[in-house]
Write a structure and sequence with these properties.
- It is built from 14 helices and no strands.
- By secondary structure, the chain is mainly alpha-helical.
- It has one domain.
């Protein structure tokens, strides 16, 4: 079963290898001398990133390029996670192979979790490659990053992709079409993670002061997945890890419950 899932996922993951490659090239061609401190400060403000101790503009840029969605390359990893999750069940249903899978002496829970685990492992591999780039390239420029902070950032970023994978898996269980399940998953992720920030910005544009910045930060999942202070090695993000693990697990549990009850 694992070999089958690897064969089906590899055609999506192989192009996904371009994501860590592009991030690495972005770091390679951005030397410390090329960093615009004003641009970095603007990005940190948009991300509501706060550090308990000063972090250099270059180190902040490495974090932004590698472990946030501000560059577009990292966002493509979430698109890949949505594509993987959306096809786990919907593709089997559309091909008519679901009945064959369910006729095998394997429980539905094991079937679903095996599919999910294979995709989760592949996503972890891609995120680890991004983390290696964040370690090797700055070190070559004489700006070594905190190894523990990079490892924590890898884990948080991976948990972010698992949340997207899980939401896409839920959509895959209830929606027959893979593409439609993927689109619904990405829209759902946006509504659940970034909507509070957009509502806050809208409130500021209209002069509404009832929505505070701190409440928006607390409600935005993105602030838990991307932690500059942890990346710099200044603190251990217990709260971010706890929230990230919980929100990554909830969609998987929902998908299991729905898959048990779904008739094929």
């Amino acid at each position: 079963m694992i070999a089958k899932e690897l064969r089906e996922a590899k055609w999506k993951v192989l192009p996904g290898l371009l994501i860590p490659l592009f991030i690495a090239l972005n770091l390679v061609f951005t030397s410390p001398a090329d960093i615009d401190a004003t641009y970095v400060a603007h990005r940190l403000h948009n991300l509501s990133a706060v550090a308990s101790q000063p972090v250099s503009a270059y180190d902040s840029a490495v974090w932004i390029f590698s472990f946030t969605l501000n560059t577009g390359f990292a966002f493509m990893l979430l698109v890949l996670a949505a594509a993987l999750g959306a096809g786990l069940i919907a593709s089997e249903t559309s091909r008519g192979s679901m009945f064959f899978l369910l006729s095998r002496p394997v429980s539905r829970d094991r079937l679903l979790l095996t599919k999910y685990a294979v995709c989760a492992a592949l996503l972890l591999g891609l995120v680890v490659l991004i983390g290696l780039a964040a370690l090797v390239v700055p070190a070559a420029y004489g700006h070594p990053q905190h190894p523990g902070g990079v490892v924590i950032s890898i884990i948080l970023f991976w948990l972010e992709t698992l949340f997207v994978l899980g939401v896409a898996l839920v959509c895959s269980v209830v929606i027959r079409g893979t593409l439609l399940a993927m689109i619904v998953a990405l829209v759902s992720v946006f509504l659940m993670s970034d909507l509070p920030t957009y509502l806050y910005n809208l409130a500021q544009d209209f002069g509404w002061s009832t929505i505070t910045h701190n409440s928006v930060v607390a409600l935005s999942l993105g602030t838990y997945w991307s932690n500059l202070d942890a990346f710099a090695g200044n603190s251990f993000p217990w709260q971010s890890l706890l929230v990230s693990v919980i929100v990554a697990a909830i969609p998987v549990i929902v998908a299991l419950v729905l898959f048990r009850r779904r008739a094929y």
